[in-house]
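#struct-help
A.M.: can someone run this one for me? Single chain, 692 residues.
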Amino acid sequence: MTSQHAPAADQLLEGLDPEQREVALALRGPVRVLAGAGTGKTRAITHRIGYGVAAGVYNPREVLAVTFTTRAAGEMRSRLRSLGAAEVQARTFHSAALRQARYFWPKVYGGELPVLTESKLPLVGNAARRQRLATDPATLRDLAAEVEWAKVSNVRPDDYPAVATARGRVVAGHDAATVARVFATYEEVKRDQGRMDMEDVLLCAAALLAEDERVAAEVRRQYRWFVVDEFQDVSPIQSALLDLWLGGRSDLCVVGDPAQTIYSFAGASADHLVGFPKRYPGTTSLELVRNYRSTPQVVAVANKLLAGSPSAGVQLRAQRDPGPEVRYAEHADEVAEAESVASAVVELRDSGVPLREVAVLFRINAQSEAFEEALAARGISYVVRGAARFFDRPEVRQAVALLRGNARGEQASGAGLVADVSAVLAGMGWAQAPPAGRGTVRDRWESLQAIVSQAQEFSATAADTSLTAFVADLERRAAEQHAPVAEGVSLATLHAAKGLEWDAVFLCGMHEGTMPIVHAEGAAAVEEERRLLYVGMTRSRRRLSISWAQARSPGGRASRKPSRFLTGLRPASASDDDQPAGARRRGRKRAVATCRSCGQPLGSTAERKVGRCAECPATYDEDLYDRLRRWRVERAASEQVPAYVVFTDLTLQAIAETKPTEAAALRGISGVGPVKIEKYGEDVIELCRGPA
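D.P.: on it. Structure tokens below:
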């Protein structure tokens, strides 16, 4: 075929690997491409479209490329322009459906399309009030999410109770029958106000095509060739709309990775991708297996994670040069884990890795706070992706405000700090037992539970355990974490990290109960957690570190175990069952940092940095500290960097506490890594030794 085409078409195949080239040459459907993580799927499918246009097989105006996010659609359009296929339509499902609905609705039904609502929440709130339900914002968000799931899954209000029960759907605080009534009332409210939601956009477009043959014929004349990216994330209503666009034709290319199916709770199903050849006989099924993103070390661990599991699929083949081995670390508690990660981030920064190329990933948003504090204490800027910073979250702001009010009114019960904090948060709906299922209510509970845990930690380590002192500590943490953010380390949940990549990735909190998450019930739900971990691993280009903590708080019971998914990947650790109990106890004792003055466990990052409680008097050499600060000012000026980039105040205090006179002693101070020892070690040691 290619010999008779213009050279431009053949040139589009240059630079593609053999599997990508196969995809580009498979111009006629049905085609299924199983594309492993980091294998260049967008490159392959855009070159397929570009080659088809250049070869004269495709009329660019007759091609519709569909993906799931506006960012991905924009990237696809940009690549198509560079390949000479600028006239190809690259849209999200919703964008394509809305365009068609707006065009055809007046012609078929007369009048304008209902107004697209920006948010379901006001309408869901109206529906809940009509059902005499008093709901907080978190519950309204969960109800809205459940309505969305039902609609994309083609579940009607009357059918919802039976279907939801069969599929294990749970909205905390409400049974399935109640949710169904809210769902039905929501639809009534929406119709009364002449509005539609994003799911209605898909439903309206599908209805127009299904009910009016003229509309269907015109759309099918417009688009002859279809490409759908991230096909593992297709919902039932999106699949139905795609069928209507095709109208029995099979010029369809779908691309996806079953191993990255992590949104089944929102209606996505990999069955459409896995079962594609059965539905479309004669399918050309291809695989992209060459991973260009990650080192062989990262790829080997990711492959091994899925090997032998129901999620096993494409076996990735690394194309990059070797890099560092994947690191595994067990910590005594979450404070120690966050401290270790933050110190490692400092070392990466000092070695030349830009902070924008570093990510700290975790399972749930509530886990971010410890890392926010540890990074802030070192002057490291960071960005929380997909969620507000911990102290910016509405429930956290409300909790701190209530605690502050109680502290000012001296409304202590005498039962102790933890009891007082628990009582205040109970007024916000917090309870010791977590709510059932997942969702915003669960996220809100996790945030409040994090404050309770902070109270427990504070009560065990602080000299002043009053509510006033605890509120002051919370406000101190908030002030540190609200520093202006420039380009910085990415903090994100594993879900929010999908589609992104970094040079260095820290997967944190990877213990049982969090990975897999405690409310993942049943084999299918647990397997999705495995895939979520796989997604996290494959975000890393070069450095991957995986860690977990044996206890939540310093001095707490070390009962946690590493995630079951890490079995066979990680080396033995102190928490393993085959370790002698005495060895485990000795390991935990050594891991808990204590104050050099009073011997109490150290809780905060600042305390662990200097090795003493905040309440204990400073024991560092103040003259040495002043000399170190003057030296730092001069060094920062000569390097044209902020002073904290050289060393933070806390690190200088720790140096003045211990007075290291050799490199080995300096290396033992938190925040002082090999790079800083090489750059500043001689100067610091000379200052510590004092005048000759």
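A.M.: thanks! The two ends are 83 Å apart (CA to CA).
D.P.: also worth noting: Confidence is low (pLDDT under 50) at residues 1-7, 578-591.
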